[in-house]
Every structure is written in C-alpha cells, then in structure tokens.
Amino acid sequence: MPKVHVNKKFFYKSLGVPEAEFSLKKLEDLCFDFGIEFEEEAENPEEIIFEVPANRYDLVCAEGIASALGAFIGSKKPPVYKIKNGATTHTMKVTKSTQEIRPFVVAAILRDITFDEDRYQSFIDLQDKLHQNVCRKRTLVAIGTHDLDTIEGPFLYDARKPEDIKFIPLNQKEAMDGKTLMEFYEKDQKLKHYLHIIRDSPVYPVIYDAKGVVLSLPPIINGDHSKIKLTTKNVFVECTATDYTKALVTLNTVVSMFSEYCTEPFHVEPVEIHYENDGAKKVTPELEGHEIEVDVDYVNTLAGIKLDVDEITKLLLKMNLYSNKVNDKTFKVHVPVTRSDILHPCDIAEDLAIAYGYMNVKDILPPAQTFGVQQPLNKFSDLMRGELVAAGYKECLNFSLCSRDEISVMLNRPMDPKAIHISNPKTHDFQVGRTTLIPGLLKTITSNKSNKLPFQIFEVGDVVLKADNEVGAKNERRLAALYTNSETSGFEFIHGLLDLLMLKLGVKPVTDSPDETKKVTEAEGYRILESEDPAFFEGMQAVILCKKKAVGIMGVIHPKVLKLHDWINPVSLIELNLELIAELTVLA
C-alpha cells in the first residue's frame, strides 16, 4: 500500500481544521474510521504518514487525503470538477510513427495556478506515486509537466530516431541526443530503472512545441527548457501511454487534485488531440465522471444496515459522492472522475458502510445455520494425493504460467489452440497459462540432476484453457506422475499406478468374459488404447478411457523431448483429468 508523507501544518490547513483543535489521537481515530492507516514520522515530527489503499489513486497526495477526510467530517464540500467552456486553446498532433512505441497521449492545462513550497512538493510527490502505482513504473504511462509560458503550441507528439533527438535534459547544462542521454543516465540511481522501456526501440517518443523545443522524452525525462518552478502560473500536463484508459485516469487524477489551486478552482483547460494514424480527434481531460444506478435493498443487505434513500444519499456525501433519489427503491450516484475504483454498486455499498461506520453495524445471527465443508473436487484431489504419497511418489508444485515453447516445441507438440496467452509477459518464462502438467515435472527432474535415481514425483494442479464462458477461460484439475531411472523406462510403474488409482476408485478394467458376473463393459470400466501423441515414444503410449471417455494419457517420453530438456535417462509419465474422473466416479 502506498505511503504518503505530508507536512503536518500543510495538511491541517488543507483539511480546514485548526491543528490545536484536532489532536493526533483524533486524527488517528478518523483515519481508522475512514479505512486508512496513520502514523507519525519518527525522524521528523513536522511530518505525518498516511498509508492508503493501492486502488485509491485520489489518496496518494495530501490534497486528495484532505479532500476525502474533510468531506468525511464535514469541514469540506465534495468538489465538482469542470472543463472550462470554450477554452480549448491548444492542440497536439500525434504522428503515425508513435504507433511503434507509445501510441497514446492525453493533455490538459492548469491555468493561473499558485504554488508554494508545500504545494510544489506535493505536486512532484503525486507524480512519483502515480508513476509507481497506476503507471506501473512508467511502462504504461509517463507524466510530463511543463511551464506553459515557456513554450508555444500547437504541440507535436512524434517518434524519431535517437540520433535525431537533441535537447538539454532537466537540470542539465549540455544538450544530448537520444543515444548519449541513455549512456549518461545509466548511472543515475533513479532514472536508470526506466531506460529499458525504450532503449532498444529504433525510435524514441518525443514531444515538441511549435518552435521545435523538446518538452520531454517520455518515459525518461523532461526538457530543462520548460521545467516547473515555484513561480510557474500555467502548467501544461501531458501523459504518454501504451494504455489509453490508464493515461486518462492518470491525467484526470493530476489535474483534479491540483485544480483547487487555480484562480478558478476545480476548472481545467482542455487540449485537443489529433491522431494522424486514424484521423481521430479527442479532447482531454474527461472530467464528467459517470453515474451508477443502485438498488437500496442491495446496498443495505451488503452493508448489513437498513436505511432509506434519503439517509443513504446524506451519508454518501461524507464519501465525496453526490447522489439523487430515483424512487423509494433506487437512487443514482454520480461517481467523480477521481474515483476510478468505483465500478459496481458493491463499491457504493462499501463506501456506504464506511460512512455509516463499521462499528455501528449491529451484530445479528444469520437467518440460517450452515456448516462449511471442503469443495468436493478439492477433497477428491487431496485423497488422490494421499494415494500417490502412499505409493512412494513425492509431490511437486510448479507455476501455472510457463513459456510458449514449454507447451509446444519442448514437448514435440504443436501449440495448443486452447492455450491462454499473456498479452504483455514480463519474462520469457511466463508467456502462457500451462495446458498440461508435463513441462513442470520435466523441469523438476532436470533441476535435480545431482539427486539419486530413481525419481518418482507427481503434481496435482490446475491447467488453464480457453472456454466458451463469461471470462473466456477455465481451470481444469489435472494429476500427473513421473517415473525415471537409468535402468528401465518405468512404464510398468506408471501402468501400475493407473491400476492402483482405478482400484481405489472402484473402477475395474474392461473384461470380456463369458461369465456375466465377471464381465466389465466399456461403459462400466476403464481401458487403454494405443495413441499418437508426439510427446511420447511411438508404440509405447496409450490414451486412457474411463466409462468410454478419454480421461488421460500415459507412456514413455520421446527421446527428442528428453534431449530438449537435457535429460539422458528414460522417463515414463501419466497425466489424468481429475475433474472428469471425479464426475464419472465419486461425484456421479
């Protein structure tokens, strides 16, 4: 959770209450009721520290905390953010080349703002907090703030070769091109962590003004020419991004929090963005917010209280939320642009419960008594684990994500069409959700080459597959067991394990006997049939059928697969669909 350091006097002034009348104990109690944590700065008695929820971007600066707590105690009214009518005086053109690196930009202007040291420091701190939080360390969004009086519009957002970009970086004396700048900041303790975001790209994003002055090289650094000072009166804020929604959230948060210091409080001047790529024209920021229609009974039930619409609307004002009555059963809540965390009526119920006070909610006995039991599938999985351990196998636990090659090339298989791919994987090892447990077991044995053979290991876990449901994916419980030794393939051990598990489940092997009492049909028992899976050795593999349905596969792993995993000993393996087996047996 983000920690926000605030000057004590500045905070009390922003809160709208005298420090003498509001002790630290009273502030601590207020924070407890509101749902944030508070502590005194041990090394600096002039500072206090707030620890706020990670999804409350409006609380990562002193202004946001003071606004929220002020509304909660009634010392401040909920602000109403507005766009200045007909005030679009600046435009920014976005070239096609930015599509290669950071395709989106949003911008706004804070006109006639007044800074002092505390406000200025809070302005800088807010940008740092947002960069670490919603901006995901500048990978999604990068914020640039500039003294508008030192630059001229219209502005240009472009992407150019590093050697074609030259400017004086913030707080430096000499001009540098893109390549020199990267080398220069490799030793900078703060900025070196962001260089990798664009360093290997053939083009770097850059923002120019009408005279060709560089405003910023996002997401690395701003230009020194347009830097913000205490005397700055007009601030140009721009956010470049790979995610347009996150960019809007970031911009809206910055301008909303500091628009209160403008001559016309809570009014922001928009900027018109022209996209050369598709001809789109957008005006930012978007400060309208949105409305949610809420059922009274729904929020009362979730919060454990019983209030009418008028009481609810009054309490929601304490949470900076304006609302109006539709009828006795329904009301509409206007969600301000600063509350991007409110997505559903359940979020309104949470704020209502906070405003009402959790300590004021009466304890009641539930209308019906129930007893918790383990989920049937989990109980079945645990029972199967017990049988494998009793058979001498050791359990492994592997990641649910793996590389694309691990479920395809390294298993001598084509890519599974049901695989779920990660759109922006952070590492090569976590590109897809695993569609089989086999890669994890093979990685386990190759990571334990120094241990004595034979290895008898297993894993019970979920694979992730595409599905025709609300989320487009599903988990499927699997069991996989592996045997490897230098002397034998161990296929008989794996086959024996299958027979053991089926015996424990009361499923007999299919038997065609003239004696009807000994006969087991395919609809009643299990059998194995020859299969053609390229991950296994041809002629030494089989698909497992239980009551006519394929529930798994077993066999000797193909030498090509073993070579790709740098393993020289023969390996036998079985993988079962535990969910399907449970449905056919114990849960039937």
Which key phrases capture this entry?
7-stranded mixed beta sheet, alpha+beta, 28 strands, 11-stranded mixed beta sheet, 588 residues
Describe the structure.
The protein has 588 residues and is an alpha+beta fold. It is built from 14 helices and 28 strands. Strands 4, 5, 6, 7, 8, 11, 12, 13, 14, 15 and 16 form an eleven-stranded mixed sheet that branches. A hairpin with a 2-residue loop joins strand 26 (536-546) and strand 27 (549-557). Helix 1 crosses helix 3 and helix 7 (296-303) packs across helix 9. It is globular and about 95 Å long.
Summarize the structure.
This protein is 25% helix and 27% strand. It has 14 helices and 28 strands. The strands form 6 sheets. Strands 4, 5, 6, 7, 8, 11, 12, 13, 14, 15 and 16 form an 11-stranded mixed β-sheet that branches. The chain has a 7-stranded mixed β-sheet with strand order 20-23-24-28-27-26-25, with helices on both faces.
